[in-house]
């Protein structure tokens, strides 16, 4: 299968693994000359918090989730790495429950691969990846690459 579009979905817990996520996306996208879609999915409360923290003017028109995502530090970290390697990318933001929103984004951008992050599970937690990663792996319209961090999550 030819890779044309790779979706990298990041969320609030991914700041500590942005370098690892960027490396993985480069390994997947660069040989295929694929476009990377950098996506940040916010729940409604996370989105409202980010709008306040980043001082978006809500009195103007409706704030575009793509603009909010583009100002998020994790997206900017990965963006810098992709710029360094001259990889084509676009930035997308979405508001909703993480798992379903990532699957919807993968479908809407016609992704050939999805990359998501998560924590290494403790022995008691190994049966489940985590609700977001598990939902994406089970529901995505394409193969999913799971990038784990080295810290444990029960």
TrEMBL record:
CDD domains: USP-like
Gene3D superfamilies: HUPs
InterPro entries: Rossmann-like_a/b/a_fold, Universal_stress_UspA, UspA
Domain UspA, residue spans: 4-148
Domain of life: Archaea
Pfam family, one: Usp
Family under the similarity heading: Belongs to the universal stress protein A family.
Name of this chain's protein: Universal stress protein
Organism of origin: Haloterrigena alkaliphila
């Amino acid at each position: 299968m030819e890779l044309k579009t790779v979706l990298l979905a990041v969320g609030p817990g991914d700041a500590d693994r942005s370098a690892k996520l960027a490396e993985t996306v480069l390994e997947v996208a660069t040989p295929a000359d694929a476009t990377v879609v950098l996506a940040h999915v916010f729940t409604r409360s996370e989105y409202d918090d980010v709008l306040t923290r980043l001082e978006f003017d809500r009195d103007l028109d409706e704030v575009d989730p793509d603009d909010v995502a583009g100002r998020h530090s994790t997206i900017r970290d990965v963006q810098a790495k992709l710029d360094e390697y001259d990889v084509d990318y676009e930035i997308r933001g979405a508001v909703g429950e993480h798992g379903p929103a990532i699957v919807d984004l993968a479908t809407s951008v016609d992704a050939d691969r999805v990359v998501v992050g998560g924590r290494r599970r403790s022995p008691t937690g190994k049966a489940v990846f985590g609700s977001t990663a598990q939902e994406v792996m089970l529901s995505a319209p394409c193969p999913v690459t799971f990038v784990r961090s080295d810290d444990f999550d029960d």
